[in-house]
Amino acid sequence: MALFSKLFNKLRGGANLSSADWKELEASLLEADLGAALTAKILDSARKESGSAEESVLKTLRDSLSIADRSLHANSERPTTILVVGVNGTGKTTSTAKLANAMKKNRSSVLIAAADTFRAAATEQIQTWGSRLNIEVVAGKQNGDPASVAFDGATRAVAEKVDFYIVDTAGRLHTKQGLMDELGKIRRVIEKLTPVDEVLLVVDATTGQNGIVQAKTFIEAAAVTGLILTKMDGSARGGVALAIEASTGIPIKFTGSGEGIEDFQPFDAETYLQGLISDEN
Amino acid sequence: MFDSLSSKFSKAFSGLRTKGRIKSGDIDEVTEEIRLALLDSDVALEVVESFIQKIKDRSLSELEEVNKGINPSQAVFNIINEELVSILGGSARRIRLAKKPPTVIMLAGLQGAGKTTLAAKLALYLKKQGNTPLLVASDLQRPNAVTQLQQVGAGVNVPVFAPEPGNGIGDPVAVARAGVKFAVEKMHNIVIVDTAGRLGVDQELMNEAIRIRDAVNPDEILFVVDAMIGQDAVRTAQAFLDGVGFDGVVLTKLDGDARGGAALSIVAKTERPIMFASTGEKSEDFDLFYPDRMASRILGLGDIQSLAEQAKSAMDSDTSEKLEKKFASGEDFTLDDFLSQLEAMKKMGSMTKLLGMLPGANSGAMKKQLESIDDNELVKTQAIVQSMTPLERNDPKVLNGSRRARIAKGSGRQVSEVNNLVDRFSQAQKMMKQMRNGGGVPGLPKGMQMPPGMGGMPSQKSGQTPPKKKSRSGNPAKRAAEQ
Prior knowledge:
Chain A is 48% helix and 15% strand. Chain A is α/β, with parallel strands linked by helices. In chain A, strand 7 (252-256) and strand 8 (264-266) form a beta hairpin. Chain B contains 22 helices and eight strands. The relative contact order of chain B is 0.09. Chain B is flat. In chain B, helix 6 (115-128) packs parallel to helix 7 (145-155) and helix 8 runs parallel beside helix 9.
């Protein structure tokens, strides 16, 4: 359990951090899944700073954030096309539904493609969301070719001139080369009809340091443009997302924080950073 | 599995290996490397610290003894291995079957840990041992979780008790209770209850899990956890232990490349054994968790035992006996025999996964080789053979140009690939004849005698044009069979 505020109060009072305090600070940072490397960096700069340790830690965290644009690259001329990708169980389908809902509330027209033809009942899952939200879902056959579903969807998205076309893909471990290649195929097939504007990688906040390798592999295979950080309502603080930003420059664009359709927000850096170093879970 | 951890251990030890005598300073150096390696693998900090302390204490107290031995660095290595095995659980535990059936197994865990997929895998595993499992759909929350369980249940041919449609409708406690009653009536000896994913911090949902538990009084509650989970593993595991409680742990998604940390942390903190490991997308990718094997993997020693077992179960005894008889009687090894070998290999899982179990698989050079292997090669080779007529399979000599062109078309491959396969096959056939006079290929288990140079071992990707098309048989019936 993090004890930041206690530590910081001690510092503000002018007390010198003892080696035990430093250890505690290190433990807190590690427990947030920031990773050994980023933690060491933060501690290093905090030691050098003469001012408040809280400010110094926050500053280093802030410096680790990506400087890339966090807004969704929308295009008003044609359907803004978004590919949702990630490893199994991170919440791609739920995030797709939440994203679609946010757009619909914004009075945009949305079309979803159920391109997860692999997992049992994945198509039904997004279709259930679709009918709840009154959003059209293009679906194919179980175990069919996901690229062909994505293509059918793109055909309709272009013909019907929808504002947003969102493609929900099957979860895949980044270690499976064949499945990673499939993502490339899905993208190429869509791009025969319309450019892909965003590839959003869904990262589970409970993920540990493996998230960095995951992100790097997905970036390479599918040209990821942003992250959706999910399950922020749990006890995990999602520090790995910052480690991903720091090492790849790909920005977090949205956060998901619950099972409700509205539990979805554009990323807010200050809230996130405060969450990383707060002692409340 | 555990790749990153084992490669770091290897690094930590390469320094130690070159030393003849080990001093206490060397131990400090190695343990610091191991500390960082474990942290990067998501082992909880406090678990790391206590592990490191144990290693230090034991190594130092046994330093004299260590240095007396022929290979001091090996001795330190052994200490680490032993401590790792002891944390990982010492010995694996089996499912406790109830004295009076049905045995009730309840699954619990975070959202997205893989409970529903695992339910089917566990059911298949238990069914193979002669049990008659029943799956109960008590996840009525996630949209279409019930449909998913019905589909994966059908996939492994295990009945699913799903009286409620889910999607927020129905009472999971009542379903669980009725499921057990149903199992008693229909004489199922094992009931697996799939529950909704819930957060450790969500007291309301935790209470629901407790009500399900109290309704069915499970013999085993299994905590299903994603092997990729980070430092939250300890907190979440503790929350589940304090909430619904659990008797054993199942690690999922072990076919990725991170995992490890969570396993060490959860076992160390909760003192509950990891019982099963789930390692892939297929229903068969599931096994008991072996702490000793896992420790070997962590330390980069490879997992020969698992490999041998998979080979044994994949090659059913009928096929291997037939092949052996054929071989002994002096009959020619045909493409049909080759096809059944390919099928057996496919049953064993992906080539990369298999070779990854070999010792040294995590070293730099070997790893590169592994990464370049294309698992689809097996499928392509199979497609080519399947596009041949029985006559052609028995006597490849009849394969003239037009037959080869037809086969290439039928299998969606190039004629050159067909030629290549036929060439390699005739060479192998020749070698088989020679071997008959001079004994078999050493080191391969019975029935797994692969002629050298045969299609199973794919060539490297580099230089090849990447295959864009999926290999599919031209024959619709065959295509269906292949998929």
